[in-house]
Design goal:
By secondary structure, the protein is mainly alpha-helical. Helices cover 41% and strands 6% of the residues. The longest helix is centred in the middle third of the chain and has 14 residues, at 95-108.
Length: 203
């Protein structure tokens, strides 16, 4: 979902004022050259790599990734590693969850999700009218310190060294949650809810 989608929906339904909670809005796309590499995802390469591996293992690797660095797959090793690799699931993710996701991805493949990153340039073109338009509403931003996107090139500088606050002049707070990966709402649901509630109470 693009940020403009819920905003357009609120405008259409005349629902103002409103609190909008967005998840995974791809902050990396704001980091200029840092996102250039995503455009080089050649069609079919990642799909071929994933097809060699059990879909459940692919999903487990993505969903449990908690290393404080960008995800890089060496050509000589590939993404899957040993098929006998045992991945211990966190409390918020069950084998039943993984099986359900895998069943759906077995039907559709991963191309749809990968195409988002292949279309970074197109996304830039589509959002061109808003390139220099700041977000003029109060904002609270939360991210896990083990989120791989937080460790993508340029992202932390953008968040903490003025770029973010320039684009979001009414930025209220940046919360970096310790020991949390990409899925903060599932890993720390109560803490995330408390942060949201404390933010809403201000208004």
């Amino acid at each position: 979902m693009k940020v403009i989608d819920p905003i357009s929906l609120l405008t259409h339904t005349n629902q103002h004022p409103s609190i909008v909670i967005l998840y995974d809005t791809n902050l990396i796309s704001k980091c200029n050259k840092a996102s250039a590499g995503f455009n080089q995802l050649e069609p079919g390469v990642a799909e071929a790599e994933f097809s060699r591996i059990d879909t459940k293992l692919v999903l487990k690797k993505f969903l449990t990734y908690r290393k404080p660095k960008a995800l890089i797959v060496p050509k000589e090793k590939g993404f899957g590693g040993s098929p006998d690799t045992i991945i211990n699931l966190p409390s918020w993710l069950s084998e039943e969850d993984v099986a359900y996701y895998a069943t759906n991805f077995d039907k559709t493949g991963f191309t749809g999700g990968l195409n988002y990153y292949r279309c970074m340039n197109l996304n830039w073109e589509m959002s061109a009218p808003w390139t220099d338009e700041p977000i003029k509403v109060p904002v609270k931003f939360m991210v896990g310190d083990l989120d791989l996107t937080y460790h993508s090139p340029g992202v932390q500088d953008y968040i903490h060294k003025g770029g973010f606050s320039k684009n979001v002049p009414f930025l209220q707070e940046v919360v970096v949650m310790e020991g949390v990966g990409h899925f903060i709402n599932q890993e720390r649901p109560h803490e995330v809810s408390d942060h949201i509630y404390e933010f809403i109470k201000k208004f």
